[in-house]
Amino acid sequence: MPDIPFWNKCNNKCVMCTNLPVFARQRGAQYGLKEQIVKLERYRKGLGPVYLKNAARAEFVSLTGGEPTLHPDFFKLLSYFRLRLPGVPITLLSNGRRFADARFAARFCAVAKPPFSTAIALHGPSPRVHDAVSGVKGSFAQTLEGIRSLLSIPGAPGVEVRVILHKKNIAVLRKTLEFLLGNFPDTSAYRVTVIHYEIEGMSLANHRGLRLKLSESAAALAACLPLIKRFGDFRLYHFPLCLVRKELRALCWITQPPEDRCYPAGKCGRCRLRRKCAGLMLEYMKHFGDPELRPVKR
Ligand code: SF4
Predict the structure, then answer these.
(1) I want to staple 292 with a disulfide (CB 3.0 to 4.6 A). Which of 154, 215, 219, 224 is the partner?
(2) Per-residue pLDDT tens for 82-126?
(3) Given ligand 1 and candidates 268, 270, 275, which is best to mutate, with the most ligand atoms within 8 Å of its CB?
(4) Angstrom distance (rounded) from CA 130 to CA 169
(5) N-terminal to C-terminal alpha carbon distance within the chain
(6) How many of the other CB atoms lie within 10 Å of CB of 29?
(7) Atom of ligand 1 nearest to the CA of 243
(8) Which helix (H) or strand (E) holds 119?
(9) What CATH architecture does domain 3-212 belong to?
(10) Would you say the CB of residue 214 lies under 6 angstroms from ligand 1?
């Protein structure tokens, strides 16, 4: 199943958002309850292209935005998706702010039956860093409260904290991981996923201030290895295996569809890790090329 834009408005203005403001300016009605139901049913019946991203992936669903929790019929629509996609893992991508409201969080947990997870983006270890990335003062406190709130509800769907790395927060990666360990010490209760930013939408528009090489991200991760080992479930997205330390390779996942990735023949053609590797994001290749890659000899 594909990435499904659940709702096109957002209450954050993240500098590395992969959407452009034109998306939020679209009429909300086309993401309304009825319209979303019609789209889902058309997709289920295989009636032509309905969703654009990850359309060929049948094994999971990602509900994206905007901010899905702001949908005016959020609970009704979520219940419908859960009912019509039995057994399909659903991941809700969120900034977590609405879950700061304990009643909202409890209602959500009652609807989001497994297999279900909530992936919440945390941009840094402090309001100074997080709010500068999210573009909204006070969002750090709400996101944090949202995570706390979900983790406190027995039987709540799985919580994943997503840290998207770019130039504005790479220097505080260690502090961000220490912050999570200090504030959420039961590391079996949630997953941490560290993602190298994608160059698309606002992150492309703001690229001068975000520009970060994969080798810089990988070096910061290597320096945090002892901290990373303390988490029960830790994942890395968008990292070529040759750039990360050997000990971290098992944590790397391939999440993008093949059409969004590349394996430069001069490097990857002679690498024994090719089959299990995410390669380079196409947009990354356009901006940085492949000189960082170090094929692992057969
Ligand atoms: S050389 Fe290519 S295939 Fe090999 S690890 Fe690096 S990116 Fe992956």
Answers:
(1) 215
(2) 999 999 999 999 999 999 999 999 999 999 999 999 999 999 999
(3) 268
(4) 8
(5) 35
(6) 8
(7) 6
(8) strand 116-121
(9) Alpha-Beta Barrel (3.20)
(10) no
